[in-house]
Here is the input.
Amino acid sequence: MAEEMSLIPVSTRILTEKDDIVDCIDKYTKGQVGPDDLICSAESVVAITQGRFVRPEELKITKVARFCCRFIPDYGSLATAHGMQSLMDVEGKWRVAFALFAGFLGKLIGQPGLFYKWGGKEAAMIDDVTGTMPPFDKCIVYGPGEPDEVCKRIQERTGCFGAMIADVNDLKRSRVVGVSPRVDGPLAAQLLLDNPFGNASQKRPICIIKNYRQYQESQKH
Here is the structure.
């Protein structure tokens, strides 16, 4: 009889740029992970351990950033001048401005999402201040680098069925950022819609999906 699938949030200390995410996941999940399990990590915490963040006071805010951020909904990470400037610094000022204009036109003709398609990969991944765990809630956090490779390393180190890095929030949105081979990322992401992560003050940036392999196989039939 197949074991039942379940989600187990994992508590950690505050992780910083001095940590290696694979070492930390191996340490904090030790004794809890089996060969049929999926280990999931919050994307912001992976990025923090890679040093992929910037403090707002380090940014030089341009007039273009101040103008463009006005067209982002208030709940978005790019709705502030600092958030928008951080995106422009890595993806290019005029590329972002063009993508924003194209996105506006796209909505008029029933094609939403063009801004995030053309604004660069960081457009959908940047977390503005308060978007992650303290003390990094005072920072702007980019998306993680080489997420698929990180997932592969986690899988190899822990011996689990697979690993995934996900961008999940309390608005019932769950997006795959990186995933190891054999894992159906979109299927796994649906299991995280209730946001089991507590990567803010709760310090639970890791979640184990027990017996995920059987669950994935059952969904194919």
